[in-house]
Amino acid sequence: MAKVKILDDVLINQIAAGEVVERPASVVKELVENSIDAGAKEITVVINQGGASLIEVIDDGEGMSKADALTAIERHGTSKISSADDLLSINTHGFRGEAIPSIASISRFTLTTRSKDLRDKQGVTIEIVGGVLKKAHDQTLPVGTRIRVEQLFYNVPARKRFLRSDRTEGALIKSQILDFAAAYPYLRLRLLCNGQDTLDITPESDFRKRLEQLRLAGKEHFFISQKLQREDKIFEVSGILSEPQVCVASSAKLRLLVNGRSVRDRIIMRAVRDGYGAMIKASQYPAGLVSMKIDPADVDVNVHPQKAEVRFRSPEAVYQLVTRGVANALSENQSGISRSESLPLENFPGSQFNFREASTAIGQMQVRERPFFYEGIPKDNSGTDLKPGFFDLIPKDENANESSVKQEWSAPIEKDATKVSLDVASLRFVGQVLSCYLIFEGADQFLIVDMHAAHERVTFERFKQQFAEGSVEIQRLLIPEEINIEDQDYESWLNAREIVQRLGFECQEQDGNKVMISGAPAILGSGDMQALFRDLLSLPFWRNWISLLDRQLDDIIARLACFGSVRSGRILQRDEALNLLNDLAQVSYGNYCPHGRPIIKFFKRLDVERMFGRVL
To answer: Which residues contact residue 163 at a Cβ distance below 8 angstroms, ignoring those fewer than 6 apart?
Structure first.
């Protein structure tokens, strides 16, 4: 008996669905992309139970004839491409012809459509159950298309067990709609969840107005607008990003668009973060959206089943363009310096561009351990530098655009289990430089102290001890503060609320995803509760924090300590500086902050005199 068999079409489609349809949001993405490609101006998405029981997408696009609709439900049926040459310049969203038959194979699927062609007097309704065509009949319909997907994964229950809560799945769908809204300002988009209007986004005249409408970067934000020209090509990056002081420890709220397509790309992610230079920590990311417009011939969108990744012909040029755009926008936003939005290619400085020189008017910057460009521009997986250029080299690294962006949350690091050996009484406070560093002089040496890192270590050790003893001191807020938790963060909040309360926060849940804070750990002092909660909920581990409680508690307390510590820019008086140094001498691991950065640097007289050639 033969062991090798040809699979039947239904099973083939179900296997394809495993690549194309990960969750309800994947279905919404595929169907809305088809609606956009059909020229729709208004798209309505209806979901029940996070999309698991019902997804319906209704558009006013050009629709399909009966013959085209019957072809569309077949594998590889598509109107988007006709030859291999078309793959070199993709201008549409859905082009593989796998989405509809794959979705139909794992659901109860109904396609209702009518073409705008005046010769088609009627539309057609096609019903498919588990990949099997049940009915196709003519019907009087308006122009456009309505696709109804019921009981997703009903015949592959193993897949359904991997879905998260209805609230989380619904939040992912909402996020997907916001991506489309940002990419296409002319669209009206509606989202109805369980019969309730969740989104109703009206058309806007331009991209910037749309971004303001969507509030993707919060209240404290700035806009990006950068163009580069090369002969008849224009390469453009635009968007909206949160200001440095409200950046968080996760990239989850940073959206990326390439030619209107939502993607995850490590090179763009790093370029955005590097554009902030020393103004954010190496572990932080902004919220907001960055949109790139590139010649379709210079980007390959056919590298991922869900089209969530792309491959650039010259990733180094993309990195330079995005970094330059973010850096210039920050400089202009914080200094008021006006910059040209359009530069010829020959003036583009590549790896020689220096953010610090371009932003001398930006006030006090937070010190970061690594220089702005680290080792230069990004390297491929083999460690080879990506050479400057603009779409004139094909990179050797075929995997340059991995979709997963590695979280670089810096967990507390204990490098030295000894206290700092300091005779504070013998030291003289000389002064404070660069708004962050304290200088003390002794008999035959002087030392420089990073005041934020020092205070962070002191706060971390004291907070950790209070927590371990169950004696976190709580300070009642004079005016309780209401925190609005976004849908995509709500599951993190549900998992985090027990530990947050144990850490000294008095919280009462309110209607509408709101939490009222009436008390906070006294050791943190008065701070921005909104920013603190945004940052805490952005940490990547809340889903499984119980399994690694001890290690993750250190992470959380380190984060709180950072918020409760004195910031760069504050001028300390002599007594304050000496008290801080004395406190530091009393705690363990006083040589390093909770994230592993050094706190103190010692300079002996002999070393300084050698530096200046006084002794050999």
So the answer is: 23, 24, 50, 52, 153, 169
Q: Please give the Cα distance from 460 to 563 (Å, whole number).
A: 10
CB 424 within 8 A of CB 415: no
103 SS3 class: helix
Is the model's pTM score more than 0.85?
Answer: no
Which residues does 10 contact at the CB level (< 8 Å), separation at least 6?
Answer: 105, 130, 131, 132
**233-242 and 288-293 as β-strands: parallel, antiparallel, unpaired?**
antiparallel
pLDDT at residue 105 greater than cutoff 50: yes
d(CA 500, CA 557): 10
**Predicted confidence (pLDDT) per residue in 177-228, tens digit:** 999 999 999 999 999 999 999 999 999 988 999 998 998 988 889 999 888 7
What is the rounded CA–CA span in Å between residue 16 and residue 211? Answer: 35
- Residue 62 CA to residue 597 CA, distance in Å, equals 59
Question: Cα(477)–Cα(260) distance, rounded to whole angstroms?
Answer: 45
**Through-space distance between the first and last CA atoms of the chain, rounded to whole angstroms:** 88
Helical (H) or strand (E) element with 223: strand 221-230
Q: What is the torsional sign of CA 493, 495, 500, 502?
A: positive
Q: Report the run of H or E that residue 66 belongs to, with start and end.
A: helix 66-72
CA distance 126 to 400: 42
Return d(Cα 283, Cα 34) in angstroms, integer.
37
Nearest-10 crossing angle of helices 451-468, 574-586: 50
Residue 354 pLDDT = 33
Q: Is the pLDDT of residue 515 over 50?
A: yes
Q: CA-CA distance, 258 to 281, in Å (whole number)?
A: 26
SS3 41: coil
The C-alpha atoms of residue 44 and residue 83 are separated, in whole angstroms, by 33
Closest listed residue to residue 222, CA positions, set 332, 343, 323: 332
Query: How much is the mean pLDDT over the chain?
Result: 77
Count, residues in the chain: 616
CA angle (189 as vertex; 185, 195 as ends), nearest 5? 160
Q: Left (φ > 0), alpha (ψ -120 to 50) or beta: where does 325 sit?
A: alpha
Higher-confidence position of 419 and 388: 419
CA–CA separation, 605 and 612 (whole Å): 11
Q: How far apart are CA 309 and CA 185, in angstroms?
A: 23
Burial of 235 (0-12, 13-18, 19+ CB in 10 A): buried
Q: 3-class DSSP state for residue 21?
A: coil
Which has the higher per-residue pLDDT, 270 or 146? 146
Q: CB count, 10 Å around CB of 502?
A: 12
The alpha carbon of 444 is separated from its chain's Cα centroid by a whole number of angstroms, namely: 49
